[in-house]
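Build the 3D complex.
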Amino acid sequence: MRWRSLAMLSLLGVTGCAHVPAWERGDLARPGMELEPHPVQRAGQEHVYSSREAGSAGAAGQGGGCGCY
Amino acid sequence: MADSLRQGDVAVDVRALRGEVLLIDFWASWCAPCAQSFAYLNALHKEFGERGLTIVGISVDERPDDARRFLARYPAAFRTAIDPRGDCPRAFDVKAMPSSYLVSRDGRIIEVHRGFRSSDLAARRQAIERALAGPPQ
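Done.
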């Protein structure tokens, strides 16, 4: 049990979160590091998708996960 | 101390500039507001340079070529330097980009400014004028 607790604590310590100083964010500022690297293309695709699939609520599907609208 | 970006100079030692009002500006090629701030810093250099204001722009780019490309696109009339190891920003405890530190003639940091907003420019200019009006060392 003790070893399991230690292992859990160790895993918490290696979650990969780290403070990056303001002057070391050059690589993080690259376009390829964005969550959405192609925002214009994505906006166009979403527009087309929501236009074509508007009858089924497009990308704004509602419901409890059962697939019914 | 940071290596100069200009050929011929080896390093910029701000201690040698004691007696002048210093504006130490930390910038980077990947920092969009830094590009905006260069026009403002050039204007300050033109307006206050002869009255004793020395602007030192220190690039924190890890790759010096990035900084050189940035300077080719946004020329700086003021002194520029580069610190790829980050010793200077670490010593100044830089929290944001860009950050500028106004240093009085007696070597005290009298104003720290983070970011670049046009709404702050008048106040920053007044702070520089007050520093220049201070007693010479």
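DSSP finds two helices and no strands in chain A.
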